[in-house]
Amino acid sequence: MSMDDMEHGEENRRVRNTPFQVRLPLFVSMALVVGLLLGATMFAPSTTNPQGTAKSYLKFRDILSYIDRDYVDTVNVEELTDYAITKMLEKLDPHTAYIPADELAMARSYLEGDFEGIGVEFNIFKDTIYVITPLSGGPSEAAGIQAGDKIIKVDGETVAGIGINNEGVFKRLRGPKGTKVNLTIQRNATKKPLVLTIERSKIPTHSVDVSYMVDDKTGYIKVSRFSANTYQEFMTALQALREKGMEQLLLDLRGNPGGYMDHAIRMADEFIDDNKMIVYTDGKGTRYDSKTFAQRKGVFEEGPLVVLLDEGSASASEIVAGALQDNDRALIVGRRSFGKGLVQMPIPLNDGSELRLTISRYYTPSGRSIQKPYKQGDTEEYEMDILHRFENGEYFHPDSSLLVDSLKYKTLAGRAVYGGGGIMPDVFVPRDTTALSEYLSQLYNKNVIREYSLNYYQKHKKELEKMPFEKFNKNFEVTDKMLQEVVQTAKASGVEYNDGQFQRSKALLRNHLKAFIARSVYGNDGFFPVLHQSDEEFLQGLKHFSRAQSLAAGSM
């Protein structure tokens, strides 16, 4: 290139503005306004290093401008920006996150109290969408969709055998209330596919999976997450159990990843009395510091309470468990919880995306930080923590490295509890692996158990639906013939038979088959009571109500 060419190029750089450059100041201004309205901003001058923040922003802007205008190949600047933001946030903590606009709706839908769609619970078996059950009162039930139906086309588009995933199903089946979708259904009882037109409607979702009386005085409630309707669902379940004579409660928070904090706090308040602390937060300075106390007369402030917890219990569920444990209100049974105690503030950005920025940490009333240790920038190691717990044997005995004086705290009554990340149980229950086998895992991986259960339900639908659950639970048996049919179904799905592993898992397999058949007939009200008959953590929880009673009476 000649000197004239270089000078010409420099002149062009001085006077030309691409559409991206023209829009960039507007984007920044909008982000600034949004940040100010929320009380937090990415681009406002830093209170600790204002010059450094401004200088870094200008550098980033310049690089994007040069790439957009001068890079040899055409690039998607928006994708580059998303990538840069994601990589930048990885240098912070494991839970600060950037969610692009096209992913935000899916991320939020998990916590929404309801959604608009056709109202089916589905699973994908052998690259085909199977209906597990039409949701009660929803448009699919009204249109005649049945458990076991295979959805092979949506609005004429083939959806079987194309490698569809859950997100692809959501995109096709969810939609605004009042819109219609045509489904082509393959049903075992009919040779010719059925074409059904379904008008979408608002579909309620549930975060209280099930509640029932285990015996004449013991209630059970399972809360799977803290969504927009959780507290109302929980109160309905709790009051119904009280009306049935419940005197003691088993609250199951296993696998609960958290969600809306206010619902968790209100739930804890139903158990805790006398303006006792539930949780507090501590951030940079005092801006995001807070203390939350019990405020109302709860529905179940007295009576034995046992909480089931495991390594899948995180965030809001850990706050409930920590508050109940530190106030000596409940006995915690299970294994150490996940350890997610960082508070994220959602900050909407100008293009519809969202920044979820960590602003403080959660602490239990005794002063324990719920957040487990992490190294900034090492998200991979953090994500491997649960696997490391398994490899280190923590699923089978408590981690003694956490039971040290430097991590010891005192509950309200002076009991020793331990920090170190997550909530340590009062009663440790090892994971029961005696009946597990690779063969049973393959039956689940290939969806053999669910597929067989659905087919069995369809073949015996009339007789099963005439049977009250109490009779089913007492008298229905999974026979040896049924087990052999499962083995044959498994072989057809490519699962090689292993007699030793089959014998090891036989009793558990019987229980799970019965539970999934019950689910097709009675929903979760049948599924969980059957499943719990082989659930060691559930059974252990029932054994410790006398200790929970002593705790409630203040005599421990």
Tag the structure with descriptive keywords.
single chain; about 550 residues; 21 helices; 21 strands; about 40% helix; about 20% strand; globular; disordered N terminus
Report what the structure shows.
There is one protein chain. With 556 residues, the protein is an alpha+beta fold. It is built from 21 helices and 21 strands. Strands 3, 4, 5, 6, 7 and 8 form a six-stranded antiparallel sheet that branches. A six-stranded mixed sheet has the order 10-11-12-15-16-21, sandwiched between helices. Strand 7 and strand 8 form a beta hairpin. The longest helix is centred in the last third of the chain and has 24 residues. The radius of gyration is 27 Å and the shape is globular.
Uncertain stretches of 5 or more adjacent residues: 1-45
- Tally the beta strands: 21
Percentage of helical residues?
40-55%
Mean pLDDT: 86
Beta-strand residue fraction: 15-25%
Radius of gyration: 27 Å
Largest sheet: 6 strands, antiparallel
SSE topology:
Elements: H1 3-15, H2 19-38, H3 50-70, H4 77-89, E1 97-99, H5 101-109, E2 114-117, E3 120-125, E4 128-134, H6 139-143, E5 150-154, E6 157-158, H7 166-173, E7 180-186, E8 194-199, E9 201-204, E10 208-213, E11 218-223, H8 230-243, E12 248-252, H9 261-269, E13 277-283, E14 290-293, E15 305-309, H10 316-326, E16 331-334, E17 342-348, E18 354-363, H11 379-383, H12 385-391, E19 408-410, E20 416-418, E21 427-428, H13 438-445, H14 448-459, H15 461-465, H16 469-475, H17 480-492, H18 499-522, H19 524-531, H20 536-542, H21 545-552
Parallel strand pairs: 11-12, 12-15, 15-16, 16-21
Antiparallel strand pairs: 1-18, 2-9, 3-4, 4-5, 5-6, 5-7, 7-8, 10-11, 13-14, 13-18, 17-18, 19-20
Helix pairs in contact: 8-9, 9-10, 14-18, 18-19
